[in-house]
Fold:
Amino acid sequence: MAATLFSKVWDLHTVRKLPTGQTQLFVGLHLVHEVTSPQAFEMLRARGWRVPFPSRTVATVDHIIPTTSLARPFADVEAEEMLTSLQQNCRDFGVPLHDLGSLEQGIVHVIGPELGLTQPGMTIACGDSHTSTHGAFGALAFGIGTSQVRDVLASQCLALDPLKVRRLDVTGALAPGVYAKDVILAIIRRLGVKGGVGYAYEYGGEAVSRMSMEERMTLCNMSVEGGARAGYVNPDATTFAYLKGRPAAPSGAAWDRAVAWWASMASDESARYDDRVTLDAGALEPHVTWGINPAQSVGVSGRVPKASDEAPEARAQVAEALDYMGFSGGEPISGTKIDVAFIGSCTNGRLSDLREASRVVKGRKVAPHVRALVVPGSNAVRAAAEKEGLDAIFRDAGFEWRGAGCSMCLAMNPDKLEGRQVCASSSNRNFKGRQGSPTGRTLLMSPAMVAAAALAGEVADVRPMLGGAR
Amino acid sequence: MTLPAICRVSGAALPLRGDDVDTDRIIPARFLVSITFEGLGEHAFEDDRKAAKAKGKAHPFDDPRFAGARILLVNRNFGCGSSREHAPQALARGGIKAVVGESFSEIFFGNAVAIGLPCVALPGEAIARLQSLVEGAPKSALALDLEARTLIADGKTLPVSIPENAREAFLSGNWDGTSMLLERFQDVEAVAARLPYVAGF
Structure:
């Protein structure tokens, strides 16, 4: 019978139906970081449990690390304690750790794919909601909380209810200057931040088929912002080409067997979906958020909504967002003054993101009032970008070129907004206070749009600034 | 591991209005820089509380009329965003024993169950009525009965919904599920052995 990738992977990893009615699901790859794991390891210690599959478990440090200096001890005593604790836990439980200073260290959702750990047909879990990123490879990847991190550490399993599957067909081709980030912002704008609750999103269609793996990661990364706990793209030739030669990818005769198996896990042509939605990629323009959740966005040529134009039940929420953001409603989003520009995060901190932004920046200068920073998603991204000279392009323009980490996406390290600063950000969340200042404001957009805003000192359409073909 | 069963929660309620309240608002990320959950209770909604104070208003968590409330009344998609378990931990450590809302984000809901914080759902109109009731009469006592799947408020009995597995977990005291996942470990090993990427391609 025709099946979706979701049900094939789900069935293959099912251990048993639990007495509670949930499914006990085997987790093929468990990614661990310093923020959501210390309490979980402590619970294992308290009960005398071990980690039975340490080779299916990989740790790194990303959320709390400074991006200026890695000198130990960190200035933040508690951040230092978190890293020390992760190092000790990994030693005690035999979990491999890509530690500070290693070329393999970086944001957990950047290094998993980079190292070839993330592969099609897997189940993946991590104590971080953006675990949905790994779905780009045709894996089922779930963000989990600390108690579930404990479950996976101790048993390599999760107790879960199956999700419904919504197929999102993204037809047509993206215009130059329009990116995967704009596609996912448009999807969330249309379906809402809770539209995906109870669903996994399967992204397909011509525009998705044409996307690189890094673009697909951006797309899947923000599934959770639309309420979908998981999102995925069926594995194809692009997926296999990306994986070939990566450290953890199979090689030799095993490579051919792996490719055959991976391909077999893709959704069948005639698979049935619980819901289908179509979006025309060709009609999209760059998107920018104006509010306090990722569904509150508008095309760059559009205007911030007025509360009075909204349906009665939506007015209060729009009014709250306008008030927080300092918009009166009705003004064009283009021309909104910014104070900070942040390029980075698990959404858009990969090499192709930095390349696209550098094309905008090259030979130009950051507006004098703007503080602009580039935080590569991993040390490997940083090294690759430096090899291409991207760091020099950014520095010459007036950007700060930083070390790898989560940085100002959620500001658990020293990189924070101050006061009511407005930040053009390539990250994933524009929640109140998200970037470290309780009154700070975030405008989400693609890395190229962040670059354009940094130069203009205000929200600006990147398309006229992009010369030549991609 | 069997923990205390949770069958009933009763007490005063705290109305927190708004859809899509994200976990960054429930507990801002700076409070996650710690290796324990201790001390989170006092920081729940810290930035929203400060913002309200700056406008001369009292956030419901600071409003003395709701001091000591045990049941949180929320609207749609509560707890969206980050998967941080620190969010239900902050609520629970701040004295909240149950959350009643129109709907919850999936990850938040799972995290809340895992730490013994029941979340039950009611239709939007019922939530709005309860929020108004409690705003008008803050000492109104609500009684949530997981066994009967009801919430009694203002002399009326309302049916609440909660997934059966979560309800069963609270009633049995098996809301901390790791032991269950370890029960038949040979089955786990058998699944691992049949996965080509674990066993070797």
About this structure: The radius of gyration of chain B is 19 Å. Chain B has a mean pLDDT of 95. Chain B has nine helices and seven strands.
